[in-house]
Amino acid sequence: MIQRPQSIFITIIIIGMIALFFLPIWQKIDKNCNTYIIYLYNLQKINPNGEILKMIFLPYYFIGCILAVLIMLISTYQLLSYKKRLLQIKLSFVNTLTISSLLGFYIYLSIKNENLIISNIQGEYQIGFIIPIICMICNIIANRFIKRDEYIIQSSENIS
Fold this sequence. Notes:
By secondary structure, this protein is an alpha+beta fold. It has helices spanning 5-20, 61-80, 85-116, 127-159, and strands spanning 26-29, 35-38, 43-46, 52-56, 124-125. The radius of gyration is 19 Å and the shape is elongated. The two termini are 25 Å apart.
């Protein structure tokens, strides 16, 4: 299980989704040097001294949390079902759709908060936005390795 290359990429997906809970997705600095930061679960307003002035928890922020946990669960199940390669391929497809949904949700959050917080200053994407893209690439690579294993096994069964 661990010695297979796709297991490494699936593990990177799981670690990336765990990291999303701690890394910022988007930030914006206003003319008073207050920083607005979007995390997976809230929006924070931080003053120049580093003190948190306001922490906003909105119900729709939990959609991102649910999607990240779902991606972790799918990836974990995909990692543990290493003997069923066809199931792994299907789970990889579902995982691709879920990661795409998470990226779409991120874009929605940034556009929504861009207009809520001082619309004439542009916000910046942070490392938390790049992690799902990396996870998507790792998922595609893992899927290719799974398909390669399936092809090798099919061709070895045809020989015997």
